[in-house]
Amino acid sequence: MKITRKLIFAIIVAFITVGIAGACQAASNVMNVEQAMNEPDGTNVSVEGYIVGVPVRVDHVEQKDFTSNYALALADDPAETQISKMIFIKLDSEYRAEYGLVNHPENMGDFIEVDGTRDPYFSHEGVENVTSIITKSTSGGGGSGSGGPNGYYDSVEGKSGQALKDGLNDIIDAHTEISYDDVWGALRMTDEDPANANNVLLLYSGRSQSKYENGGDVDDWNREHVWAKSHGDFGNAMGPGTDLHHLRPTDVTVNSSRSNLDFDNGGSSHHEAPGTFYDSDSWEPRDEVKGDVARMIFYMAVRYEGERSGEPDLVVADYVGTSGPKLGKLSTLKQWHDQDPVSDFEQNRNEIIYNDYQNNRNPFIDHPEYVDLIW
């Protein structure tokens, strides 16, 4: 057969076409975690997901205080806590130094793609014989938080202690302030019930209630200052008194019962707020919002440091029965922060406040690890 330039050109085109088709097919074969978990054992897979911890046995995944570099848990949701929705990735020696969470806890929350063989690990759905890991996006060390907008926290990278606290204050200090009257409308958006757009979710009771059943009557909802306004004497003034990052809708009588109590465990059950306990010097919210409360308190202590005229210098104290610009109890709030990780509801709330109202963020929702780095 005579080889002509036309034939050579046709062969080259054919190779290119096959290559492109192969690449497209490979790209289309990347699965999410749920899809990969349903693949049969022995199948070669490419799976992408968020790093959500370290599996150390079939029924336990470490999501903090990591003790092993030998595996990762991936999930489709960066805030996932249910092991049944995770796939375990066995890390052979060549990947442990770069991806093991003991060495690099800041990788928690990163979005990665893994190539390997679908085989059980710890008798759980897993991937072994890994041939490739690619980091597709990073959380910036955000743990189960979102990490925030690109570049938002760049100025505090590598900092800890007072330097981190001061740096975060510089980032979130200058923001739009709204009036106390405008808080009503804002809470209708920030605390909207995901299951019913006509309602808001009340913080302490968990009740879903009409957005417009607000006011001062029994069973209305009103504007709760989670950092009690008497702890700093800021009242309803624009700034700390109207900062949406610590204002939440609550039942009127439940709000009255909370008053200006510090936060701690124990007490008697509140009849209108299931799972909530209180006594003469402390208030314990239901488990589902313990972390929310803690992260709001940590935000206030970083945002308000007395730098601006008339603003208080707020401090989280490690005791109850506080007075002045202090609120407790630090050690309990840290436990609640760990016990109740950042939720989708919190992340959505943070985004709405940032984009639609104040143009600043709660750093402890974006980067939960900042709590231990400061306190």
Which descriptors apply to this entry?
four-stranded mixed β-sheet; alpha+beta; 375 residues; OB fold (Dihydrolipoamide Acetyltransferase, E2P); 2 domains; YhcR_N; single chain
The end-to-end span amounts to: 79 Å
- Which sequence of SSEs, written as H and E, runs from N to C? HEHEEEEHEEHHEEEEEHEEEEHEEHHHH
Widest sheet: strand ordering: 2-4-5-7-6
Please count the beta strands (DSSP E, at least 2 residues each). Answer: 18
Q: Biggest β-sheet, characterized?
A: 5 strands, mixed, barrel
Percentage of residues in DSSP E strands: 15-25%
Rg (CA only): 25 Å
Structural class: alpha+beta
Tally of structural domains: 2
Report the average pLDDT across residues: 90
- Please count the helical segments: 11
Shape: globular
In words, what does this structure look like?
- By secondary structure, this protein is of the alpha+beta class.
- The protein folds into two domains: 31-137, OB fold (Dihydrolipoamide Acetyltransferase, E2P) (Beta Barrel), CATH 2.40.50.200; 154-374, no CATH class.
- Helix content is 30%, strand content 24%.
- The chain has eleven helices and 18 strands.
- The chain has helices at residues 5-28, 33-37, 93-99, 161-172, 180-190, 252-258, 290-303, 330-339, 344-357, 363-366, 370-374, and strands spanning 30-31, 43-57, 60-62, 71-75, 86-90, 111-118, 126-137, 192-193, 196-201, 208-210, 221-225, 247-251, 262-263, 268-270, 273-278, 282-284, 315-317, 326-328.
- The strands form five sheets. The protein has a five-stranded mixed barrel. A four-stranded mixed beta sheet has the order 13-16-15-14, with helices on one face.
- Strand 15 (273-278) and strand 16 form a beta hairpin.
- Helix 7 (290-303) packs across helix 8.
- The longest helix has 24 residues, at 5-28.
- It is globular, with a radius of gyration of 25 Å.
- The N and C termini lie far apart (79 Å).
- The model is unreliable at 13-28 (pLDDT under 50).
